[in-house]
Amino acid sequence: MKTDKLRINQLSPQNYEWYLAYLQAIDTKNLELYSSFLTEDCVMLSNNHPPVRGKEAIIPFLSNYWTTFDSLEHDLLNIYGSDLFFVLEALNHYKRQDGEAVTLRAVAFTDRNAAGLVTSVRFYTDTTQLFS
Question: pLDDT tens per residue, the chain (132 residues)?
C-alpha cells in the first residue's frame, strides 16, 4: 500500500490505522482477515452490478473476483468524511494475469456501525483496462 500521495485524510489517527489494516487485507487478498471487518449483513456494491448482500455472499464473490488478477496495491489520494462514513479516492495498481501493470482510478464509500464494523461498501472504477 502506498500513502505518500495522501493529501487529505479526515479520519482520526485510530480509525486511519484501522482503515490501513482493512485495505491491507484487500491488497494481500486475505479473505479471512477481510471478513473480520464486516457485519454479517454487510452489503457490497461494485459499479453497476447488483448488490451482494451478507458476509456469506461477499466472501465467495471476492474470492472469485480476486482470482481475475495477480495483485492489487492501493495508492491513497484522499479520504473524506467521518470515522463511520467516509470515501476513499485512490489509484489502484493492478498486475493482470498476463503480467501487465494497470493503474485505475477508484473511489470506495464505506459505512461502519458503532462497533466499527463495515455495514456497506460501494466501490466504483472503470475496470475495462484490467480485463481487456
Answer: 999 999 999 999 999 999 999 999 999 999 999 999 999 999 999 998 999 999 999 999 999 999 999 999 999 999 999 999 999 999 999 999 999 999 999 999 999 999 999 999 999 999 999 988
Tell me whether residue 126 is in a domain.
Answer: yes
Q: Rounded distance, CA 126 to CA 39, Å?
A: 27
Q: What is the CATH number of the domain that holds 27?
A: 3.10.450.50
Structural domain boundaries, residue 69: 8-131
Has residue 2 been placed in a domain? no
**Residue 3 domain-assigned?**
no
From the list 18, 2, 6, 11, the residue with the least C-alpha distance to 80 is 11
Q: How is residue 56 written as a grid cell?
A: 456469506
Strands 71-81 and 8-9: parallel
Nine-digit cell string for 13 = 489517527
Name the H helices within 30-132: 31-35, 55-66, 128-131
Domain total of the chain: 1
- How far apart are the C-alpha atoms of 100 and 90, rounded to whole Å? 20
